[in-house]
Amino acid sequence: MTWRGGLAVAVLLALGLVGGYAASATWSARTVASDDPATPVPAQPELPSDPEPVVNPDPDQPPLATDLEYHVERLGDHGFEVDVPVPNGWSQDISEIAEWKWKPKGYPPFTYVLRVERVAGERRTIPSMLAQRIVGLHDDIRISDVEITERTSDSLAYDYVFNGYRRHAFITWIDVSGSGEAEMEVATNGRERDVEGMRTLVEHVASGMQPVTP
Questions:
Q1: Same domain, 31 and 76
Q2: What total of structural domains would you count in the chain?
Q3: Residue 29, pLDDT score
Q4: Is residue 50 part of a domain?
Q5: Is residue 197 within 8 Å of residue 178, measured between CB atoms?
Q6: Which helix (H) or strand (E) holds 166?
Q7: How many CA atoms lie within 13 A of 56 on its CB side?
Q8: What is the 3-state secondary structure (H, E, C) of 46-85?
Q9: Does residue 130 lie within any of the structural domains?
Q10: C-alpha closest to that of 145 among 36, 22, 55
Q11: What is the DSSP letter of 195?
């Protein structure tokens, strides 16, 4: 065999080895991919996504201030009463047996509102209430475009669209009597311009809430 013939054979052998290694590597990769649930699946043709919600302009009332003055209102019944700080000049918008709402007098819907609710009857811990609320937000067909923006051990901040308006909300739970369970819920929702005022409002109301002792 001439040196040219020997060289040709060597080249063919090298190509065969490289080709065999490449085929083996490709097969190994396919085998691993088929058994590994964390491996991304090849992209499928994109399905039509939900259209962006149509959002109306916010009412043009001034932003919620961060330096409100408060007075105390007593809520509940003789079995369970609490004293709650409420902003001066706000009136009760809707009041139910265990839920109270306030907003500035004369303000239209979709500005901002404060809500306080007694939730002691649910007999849930604060972490349980928080987890339940997150699930409920994503399951609520009345709202869309939900995004959790902040989360602590006892509070949530989130955005959503309701009835054509972009809303921003803060919510927290309080164990007023030291029972180990969530007893009161404090929440507010409003416009983007109200975010800092709402954060301050919820913190002030929650920290100032006091049980009424017999």
A1: no
A2: 2
A3: 34
A4: no
A5: no
A6: strand 165-174
A7: 11
A8: CCCCCCCCCCCCCCCCCCCCCCCCEEEEEEEECCEEEEEE
A9: yes
A10: 55
A11: H
Range of the domain at 1: 1-36
Question: Nearest 10 degrees: CA dihedral of 191, 194, 200, 205?
Answer: -50
Question: Domain check: are 115 and 185 in the same one?
Answer: yes
Q: Is 119 among the domain residues?
A: yes
Residues in the chain: 214
Query: What is the spatial order of strands in the sheet that 184-190 belongs to?
Result: 90-95, 99-104, 113-118, 184-190, 165-174, 155-162, 143-151
In a domain, 44, yes or no: no
Same domain for 152 and 203, yes or no, is: yes
Q: Give residue 111's pLDDT.
A: 98
Two tokens at 35? 């058994």
Tokens, residue 211: 């049980």
Q: What is the CATH number of the domain that holds 150?
A: 3.40.1000.10
DSSP-based helix, strand, coil % in the chain, nearest 5: 30, 35, 35
One digit per residue, pLDDT tens: the chain, 214 residues? Answer: 443 444 344 443 444 434 443 333 333 333 333 333 333 344 455 555 566 778 999 999 999 999 999 999 999 987 889 999 999 999 997 777 899 999 999 999 999 999 999 999 999 999 999 999 999 999 999 999 999 999 999 999 999 999 999 999 999 999 999 999 999 999 999 999 999 999 999 999 999 999 998 7
Pair 104, 19 in one domain = no
Please indicate, yes or no, whether residues 32 and 90 belong to a single structural domain of this protein.
no
pLDDT for 79: 80
